[in-house]
Specification:
Elements (H helix, E strand, L loop, with lengths): L1 H13 L8 H4 L21 H8 L8 H14 L1 H4 L8 H4 L11 H4 L3 H10 L13 H16 L13
The structure holds heme C.
């Protein structure tokens, strides 16, 4: 038993950098680092152009598949505050977060799908941006789902499920 403890202790010791190794051994990771290459002017990081294209109006074609995707994403990212029906009565609000306006207020109903997608991208007032969590295509999907929710007066498409 004692021997085992000593062995473990020894193996831990030998795996540490004692500072006595040859410098070139210690520094060997440096050789795999890529050299610094300056970014030529006019270069756009990969993915940015694709993201902007995906966000550009009028956005993807509105299909039942897009709306269904929008509903699924809305439930995950928006309903905690906005509520399943969009009336601003989600669980987070019931625990003290300032209630968002109802989607069924005239002012919010007047927002276009593009404006809703922009709210997701940029945030608005106390609502923070969801740009790092919701993909550009999904922002359109959610926006169109919200427009449908507004048109239907707040009845979630999936029947038989209670509001959270
Ligand atoms: C953490 C709570 C929270 C979440 C989650 C949330 N929102 Fe909001 N939202 C708010 C609040 C609060 C406001 C009111 C902001 C203000 O005016 O200060 C708001 C406002 C809005 C508005 C109205 C903007 C206006 O012009 O008044 C829209 C549209 C909206 N949210 C859409 C969404 C969508 C779509 C999602 C999901 C991607 C989402 N929100 C997720 C809290 C939230």
């Amino acid at each position: 038993m004692r021997l085992a403890v000593v062995m473990i202790g020894l193996s831990l010791l030998t795996s540490c950098d004692t500072g006595t190794e040859q410098r070139d051994e210690v520094a060997s990771t440096r050789t795999v680092q890529r050299p610094y290459v300056p970014v030529p002017p006019g270069v756009i990081p990969r993915g940015t152009a694709a993201q902007e294209a995906a966000l550009a109006a009028p956005g993807p074609q509105v299909t039942p598949g897009l709306i269904a995707r929008g509903e699924e994403r809305f439930r995950a990212f928006c309903s905690p505050c906005h509520g399943l029906s969009g009336r601003g009565d989600g669980t987070v609000v019931s625990r003290g977060f300032p209630p968002p306006p109802s989607y069924h207020e005239e002012r919010v109903k007047a927002l276009s799908a593009e404006q809703i997608a922009t709210v997701i991208t940029e945030g608005r007032g106390r609502m923070f941006s969801y740009a790092d969590r919701v993909l550009p295509e999904d922002r359109w999907a959610i926006a169109h789902y919200v427009k449908q929710l507004q048109a239907e007066g707040g009845t979630p498409m999936r029947q038989g499920e209670a509001s959270p």
